[in-house]
């Protein structure tokens, strides 16, 4: 799949915190509403889980935070502990699937690129939060090119503010698209080991996880962080400028 990088055995993490390592590359935008004073999220199974990511259950394909008007562009995941059975990660290239979907079902594609869906996430984690946003499942630009996927069934609202006659066609289109996402022709599975780091485009890739069996303690532990594309592209331009300057010396 395009839009993903793997780093095996990131042993340097043991000497520094995960956010400290990322800050060497570029500054992370603080998302206080999501994480309080923490700069990284801890994904591990716990009894008082307020998010399916903190359970041992299967995670269906999704993008993170469509409840935000501007979802984070890049996600980082660092594996600290991995369960022996289950827990495999899965990714699928949402852009590629959307383009194939458009070829085979242009009517359904038009529905998913024009219908605004309500997303909501209300609760308490590091802080109280009540996030809401309207997103199209498939965002396209003025040329009709796919630019972002916004889909997380766990945070899709029970409210669906569209005319009644459009509800059934929408769900038929969404069911068809989800079927494409879960096709073995498109999805890729891998299992992270302690020390591994994965970086992926949260606007392009949908990710998920197979279920796993809970142990006596924490069975599986990943820590994650986010960065906005604006921050990343700014850093890349600065690095490119510095390289060109050195070449001219």
From TrEMBL:
Q: Which domain of life is it from?
A: Eukaryota
Query: What one GO molecular function would you report for this record?
Result: gamma-butyrobetaine dioxygenase activity
Pathway the protein acts in: Amine and polyamine biosynthesis; carnitine biosynthesis
Cofactor(s) of this protein: Fe(2+); L-ascorbate
One Pfam family per UniProt: TauD
**TauD/TfdA-like domain location, by residue?**
2-226
| Gene Ontology CC annotations of this record | mitochondrion
Presence of keyword DNA-binding: no
Gene3D superfamilies linked to this entry: Clavaminate synthase-like
Q: Which keywords does this Swiss-Prot/TrEMBL entry list?
A: Carnitine biosynthesis, Dioxygenase, Iron, Metal-binding, Oxidoreductase
Q: What's a BP term from Gene Ontology annotated to this protein?
A: carnitine biosynthetic process
The text of the family note is: Belongs to the gamma-BBH/TMLD family.
Q: What is this protein called?
A: TauD/TfdA-like domain-containing protein
Name the species this protein comes from: Laticauda laticaudata
């Amino acid at each position: 799949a395009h839009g993903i990088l793997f780093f095996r055995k990131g042993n340097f993490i043991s000497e520094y915190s995960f956010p400290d390592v990322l800050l060497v590359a570029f500054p992370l935008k603080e998302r206080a509403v999501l994480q309080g004073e923490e700069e990284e999220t801890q994904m591990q199974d716990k009894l008082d889980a307020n998010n399916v990511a903190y359970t041992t259950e299967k995670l269906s394909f999704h993008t993170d935070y469509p409840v935000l008007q501007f979802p984070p562009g890049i996600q980082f995941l660092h594996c600290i502990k991995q369960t022996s059975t289950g827990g495999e990660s899965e990714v699928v290239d949402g852009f590629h699937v959307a383009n194939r979907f458009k070829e085979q079902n242009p009517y359904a594609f038009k529905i998913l690129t024009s219908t605004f869906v309500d997303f909501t996430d209300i609760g308490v984690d590091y802080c109280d939060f009540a996030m809401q946003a309207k997103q199209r499942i498939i965002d396209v630009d003025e040329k009709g090119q796919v630019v972002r996927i916004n889909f997380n069934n766990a945070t899709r609202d029970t409210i669906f503010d569209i005319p009644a006659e459009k509800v059934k066609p929408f769900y038929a289109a969404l069911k068809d698209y989800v079927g494409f996402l879960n096709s073995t022709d498109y999805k890729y599975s891998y299992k992270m080991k302690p020390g591994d780091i994965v970086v992926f485009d949260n606007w392009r890739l949908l990710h998920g996880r197979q279920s796993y069996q809970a142990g006596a303690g924490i069975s599986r532990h990943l820590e994650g962080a986010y960065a906005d594309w604006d921050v990343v592209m700014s850093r890349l331009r600065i690095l490119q400028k510095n390289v060109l300057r050195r070449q001219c010396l």
